[in-house]
TrEMBL record:
CDD domains in the record: CYP132-like
Gly residues composition-biased segments: 238-251
Region described as Disordered: 215-256
Name assigned to this protein: Cytochrome P450
One GO MF term: iron ion binding
Keywords for this protein: Heme, Iron, Metal-binding, Monooxygenase, Oxidoreductase
Residue ranges of the TM segments: none
InterPro entries in UniProt: Cyt_P450, Cyt_P450_CS, Cyt_P450_E_grp-I, Cyt_P450_sf, Cytochrome_P450_Monoox
């Protein structure tokens, strides 16, 4: 077995941290172009390995998933923000949280949420006027926050609270941008960044607490409440029921509302989880459940603005899907070209641009020994733009997603939602939501991008580094 994978030379102390922080996207691609399937570099104190071969990525995420965990970066920020929520928890805690959450993401329940998604979209579009310029990223994030709170928390969020969440995303995101000096500064040090981060987490938690408070007492569980079934008839505004969530049988809740907040409140009342677990899960869902889909839509609108032919085809599918009424989950299943556009958008601009894993023991990948405790990166950004799997990889070409072309590529040449046991629980939810929003917007409007050349910023997700102004034109 060969000793050490190749990789770029780093600086003393910060290793390759400065190069990575300056432009993680160019750095990772340059490494992949120069060094092959497994690349070693140093981001601060920890050895890091970038995997660029889909077969190795599949082994890490799927076949050998039990040999890896999510890394603890020795920095309390992630823990402070997401705690033991589904995204970052491990072991039995993760299994319990995933089992609890699964029924809320059951395909029948997701399909039944189409009406909620369309209602929110319509009410937002009612504010748009012909010729106006909007920052589409803020605009779709406002919409996806409302949808996730309604659909998964069975509650409404006020405009003021949405604004607060959006304002706080900036300091939260800043805390997770690559910075080679971060490991030198303890989390408790009263730097401006640390203080703003802590204040943002507090604010986000108080928004969550407000939502929970509004829901508290609106339902009771006969399993723990002698008041009996009449106490449980209240349904959240998400329109639960209609076969959604496997009728709740997974947690023995009969015909109870299956939005995630209701499910978690019942689990807490049964003593299966604490208030802290509940809050961690809700913060996780609020962030993971809106920012990613908003980014996928932002990049899709940007690409459509630059590709009039594709825009025309999406518009005609959107008009067919919307017809005279509100589109449903069945209608958007017909939007095949739109789905290809969405895939192409997430290929070029994957909202989650890299996954991290840590081997629990020494492992062998690509012929190299990777030591326990190192950081492994499986980067969507790198693989999705590799000329090994895609001709002319930087160009926008939805026809790559025609079934016969798609079937020629390895499975993990495209993995915007991850894979294996930790795959995205919200995948079906977000694809339905994105297609419904595209159907509503593209059937009524054309969006023309009026900003600078797109430049990108890496944090937990991949963001445009500037506003994304779009002029709205009624069709
Ligand atoms: C375009 C939209 C989305 C993208 C690109 C995306 C991407 C991802 C990826 C790549 C992972 C795997 C992370 C890893 O393996 O380390 C993930 C996990 C997760 N996602 Fe998503 N996501 C999206 C939408 C959503 C939505 C709408 C929700 C919630 C409603 C959600 C909730 C989660 C959660 C809770 C996890 C952790 C699952 C677990 O570890 O069991 N995501 N997502």
């Amino acid at each position: 077995m060969s000793a050490t994978p190749p990789g770029p030379i780093g600086d003393p102390l910060v290793g390759n941290g400065r190069q990575y922080a300056d432009d993680p996207f160019s750095f990772m691609r340059a490494c992949a172009d120069s060094y092959g399937d497994v690349i070693r570099f140093d981001l601060g104190p920890r050895e890091t390995y970038l995997l660029t071969n889909p077969a190795d990525i599949e082994r890490v995420l799927v076949a050998d998933a039990e040999r890896y965990r999510k890394p603890q970066f020795g920095d309390g920020a992630m823990d402070r923000l997401l705690g033991d929520g589904l995204l970052m928890s491990e072991g039995e805690t993760w299994q319990r949280q995933r089992r609890l959450a699964n029924p809320s993401f059951h395909s029948r329940r997701i399909g039944a949420l189409a009406g909620t998604m369309v209602d929110h979209t319509e009410s937002q579009l009612a504010d748009w006027s012909d010729g106006e310029v909007v920052d589409i990223q803020l605009e779709v994030a406002r919409l996806t926050v409302k949808i996730i709170v309604s659909a998964m928390f069975g509650a409404d969020i006020t405009d003021e609270e949405v604004k607060t969440v959006q304002e706080k995303l900036e300091p939260l995101g800043a805390r997770f941008e690559p910075d080679p000096r971060r490991f030198l500064i303890p989390d408790w040090a009263p730097t401006r960044e640390n203080r703003e981060f802590a204040a943002a987490v507090d604010t986000l938690e108080s928004v969550i607490d407000g939502i929970v408070e509004r829901r508290r007492g609106t339902e009771r569980d006969p399993a723990v409440d002698p008041a009996g079934p009449e106490g449980v008839a209240v349904r959240g505004p998400a329109g639960d029921g209609e076969g959604g969530g496997g009728s709740g049988s997974d947690d023995g809740s009969g015909d109870l509302p299956m939005d995630l907040l209701s499910v978690l409140l019942r689990a807490r009342d049964r003593g299966e989880q604490t208030d802290e677990n509940l809050r961690d899960e809700l913060v996780t869902m609020l962030l993971a459940g809106h920012d990613t889909t908003a980014l996928a839509l932002t990049y899709t609108f940007y690409l459509l603005s630059n590709h009039p032919e594709a825009r025309k085809r999406v518009a005609s599918e959107a008009q067919a899907a919307t017809g005279d009424g509100a589109p449903t989950a069945a209608d958007v299943r017909e939007m095949e070209f739109t789905e290809r556009v969405l895939n192409e958008s997430m290929r070029l601009y994957p909202p989650v641009y890299t996954l991290f894993r840590e081997p629990k023991l020494d492992v062998k990948l690509g012929g190299y020994r990777i030591p326990e405790g190192s950081a492994l990166m499986c980067s969507q950004w790198v693989v999705h733009r590799s000329s090994r799997w895609y001709d002319d990889p930087d160009s926008f070409d939805p026809s790559r997603w025609e079934p016969e072309r798609r079937s020629q590529r390895p499975r993990f040449a495209f993995f915007p939602f991850g894979g294996g046991p930790r795959h995205c629980i919200g995948k079906s939810f977000s694809l339905l939501e994105a297609k419904l929003i595209l159907a509503k917007v593209c059937s009524q409007y054309e969006l023309e991008y009026e900003g600078p050349d797109l430049s990108l910023r890496g944090s937990l997700t991949m963001h445009p580094d500037h506003p994304v102004p779009m002029r709205i034109r009624e069709r």
